[in-house]
Structures are given as structure tokens and as C-alpha cells.
Amino acid sequence: MEMAESLIKQGKAYVDDTPKEQMRSERMDGVESKRRNSTVEENLSLWKEMVNGTKRGTECCVRGKLDMQDPNKSLRDPVYYRCNPDPHHRVGSKYKVYPTYDFACPFVDALEGVTHALRSSEYHDRNAQYYRILQDMGLRRVEIYEFSRLNMVYTVLSKRKLLWFVQNNMVEDWTDARFPTVQGIVRRGLKIEALIQFILEQGASKNLNLMEWDKLWTINKKIVDPVCGRHTAVLKDKRVLLTLTNGPEEPFVRILPRHKKHEGAGKKATTFANRIWLEYADASVVSVGEEVTLMDWGNAIIREIKTDDGTVTQLVGELHLEGSVKMTKLKLTWLSDIEDLVSLSLVDFDYLINKKKLEEDEDFLDNLNPCTRREALALGDPNMRNVKKGEVIQLERKGYYRCDVPFIRSSKPIMLFAIPDGRQKSTSIG
């Protein structure tokens, strides 16, 4: 406020009561305001009205006296201060006038000892204004270093647009896993190290770039894959029972590593029984007499396929543990049919908008993706009771997941969020 008053006294700023729309058109046309050449006394008198928040004060604003003919319109007497008597959410009614960004940024940067102000390239046309205001203030020059904003495909990054999704309950909140906020992508399963590595690989480019998400998720996979524990799950509504005629009479348990190449992932208890669940997708492609590999167990030969109206309902087979796993085409994940299996909810996400790049004149509301979240119920191995909130695991042959809601009680499923691995263009939802 002292700086604004000082500029008024030096004749480098003036108080203007031109109506908003008229001021806008005068700036566009390079027409000087009728108040531009008011005396210092007149300006100070109106400034006082603004500071006190009077009715007269609310009709006024402070403008810099720069150059109304400059081809760069940001230099055509920009607004420095506005009068707003409404209480502020932090300081209450202490102030009735507030500076604009254009006025506050150069002042604060110079005052706080900033040497280089990092600004995204959409402010390029305002750089001359920034330097001119610093000059008029008599403050030291702060260098502006420009960089282009990082834009991602199928994504809106504008906080105003993201707020619309929150307010209209299209997402849970600002930490929703579909959101391009840091909390959102971390909740989806991104490791902060991957984000840092991704940003460092970009560098500070001045070119406008539209980035694919795949690159970020590929970096993430390289971080999580070597260390995350492996588990098994089958879809609840799409599973088929395989009865092994020569399987163990009584179920038995073996302790296996959660990750074959990383001891730090710990151990898991795997139950072996003569009745096991397979994914329907696997059961529907096996044929009678075919030898398949049951992962972490050994080979089995399919002896009988029971169907109902073309749908596979049950399989019968026998273990052939001396068979070579190298000779089989199908390597199947399975779960023993035991009561200890845990309920899972596997959540898959898609982009909030269905257009890769929105043009300037396009409304994001016209390009909303109708289905951005899909949930599938599944059964998981009993060891998943110990998976902690935020932990990343791999479900064998399904992909990587982050635990959003851990095991609380048997009736409440563990909620796992699917993490893209960079291979698919989108975690598209059918």
C-alpha cells in the first residue's frame, strides 16, 4: 500500500473510476482515461476513499501510468489496486483494498530476494509489464525464466475445471485416483520417485508439449516391479472349479516367497488342495487331454470339461507333477477352494475426458467420458489380509494394484486400485 501511494505521489499511478467495460474497450483501442491526468491531490483523495472502503472508493481502482499506445496491451495502464470491502477469509476487514497479481508479483519477488522468477510461457506477453513495474517501483531487476506448462493427454489441469468435477460429485474429492493432482496419482499407485524422475527427464523446455501418461507409468513400473509382493486373485463371478482326482486328500500349506527375486518382500503361505478355482477366461480355452501348468505347483492334465449351454461350469483333471513346465502353453493362476479366501474389490479407472487434446475453443463439458470407474469383485489369497493401505502389490497375470482400503473384516472387501503399467494406451473400461 505504501508503494502504491508512493507511485501515486510520483505521478506514476492514478486512481480511475471508469466503468469496467468502458475501461476494457479503451485499453483495447488505446484511448486514455479521462482520469489519467488528474492531479496528485485528486488521486490521493480518491485513494483514501478506496482505503476506507467507502461507496465512492468501491467505484475506483488504481492504474499504472505506463503507455496507452504500446502495441503490447499489458502495458496499457494495467490495474494495480482494487477496492473490495468484503471481509477476507484470513485477515477479516483489516483491509479494504487489495493489489492485483500484476502489481504484487514483481514487488514481492524483488522484496523477498528472488533472483529468477520461474513463470510458465503463457505469461510471456506480460514479461515487459513485470520489468516496467519493477523499474517504476525503483526496485532491483528480477530475471524471468520461462518454461512451458506440462500438458497431459486426455487430461484437464485447470483447477477451475477440476473444481467442477468435485462440486458435481463426478469424483470423490481432490485426492480421487482419476485426478491429475499429486495426491490423486499417488493414490492411483504412482511412486513419488517416478514422478521426480519423469519431471527431471522432461527438463525445463519452452516448447509446448503434450505428454503421454504411458511414459510416467512405465517409469513407475520399473520402480515397483522389482520389490512388490506377488499375490493371486480370481474374479468372483467368473471362476470355474477344477477338481484334481489325484490331488492331496487333505489341504496342505507351503511357505513361498512373495517375490522370487526380492527377499525383502517377505513370505506367504500357499494352500494346496484337490479343489481349486481358475479364472473363467482360462477355463474356457483349455481342451480335454491338454497339459497345463498350475503356477507354483506343477503340471496337470485336463480330463473332463463340463458345460451348460456352451458355458464351462466345471473341470476335472489330474496332477502330473513330473511333467515339464516348458512344454505347456498355458500357465494358470489358481486358488484353493478354502474358506480363508478374502473378498477383493478391483477398481479400474479411465480418463475423465475422452478427447486426447482439447482445443482452445472446445468445452471440456462436451467431452466428458461417461464411464470412468469400473469395479469387479474377486477372491484373493488369505495372505492379502496383511496388505497395508498404500502398499503396491502385483496380482499374478492381472497387473499391479495399490491397496486403498486394507482388510478390516471378512464382510468388507479389500479395495485395490489398478495401476497402469505404461503398456496400454489407457486403462480403458469396456
From TrEMBL:
It is found in: Cytoplasm. Residues 14-36 have a biased composition (Basic and acidic residues). GO terms for cellular component: cytosol; methionyl glutamyl tRNA synthetase complex. The keyword Cytoplasm applies. Keywords: Aminoacyl-tRNA synthetase, ATP-binding, Cytoplasm, Ligase, Nucleotide-binding, Protein biosynthesis. Residues 1-36 are annotated as: Disordered. InterPro entries: Gln/Glu-tRNA_Ligase, Glu/Gln-tRNA-synth_Ib_cat-dom, Glu/Gln-tRNA-synth_Ib_codon-bd, Rbsml_bL25/Gln-tRNA_synth_N, Ribosomal_bL25/Gln-tRNA_synth, Rossmann-like_a/b/a_fold, tRNA-synt_1c_C2. It catalyses: tRNA(Glu) + L-glutamate + ATP = L-glutamyl-tRNA(Glu) + AMP + diphosphate. One of its GO terms (molecular function) is glutamate-tRNA ligase activity. It is an enzyme of class 6 (ligase). Residues 331-404 form the tRNA synthetases class I (E and Q) anti-codon binding domain. Its EC number is 6.1.1.17. Residues 2-224 form the Glutamyl/glutaminyl-tRNA synthetase class Ib catalytic domain. Its main location: cytoplasm. GO terms for biological process: glutamyl-tRNA aminoacylation. Residues 230-319 form the Glutamyl/glutaminyl-tRNA synthetase class Ib anti-codon binding domain. Coiled coil: none annotated. Belongs to the class-I aminoacyl-tRNA synthetase family. Glutamate--tRNA ligase type 2 subfamily. This is glutamate--tRNA ligase. It comes from Aegilops tauschii subsp. strangulata (Goatgrass).
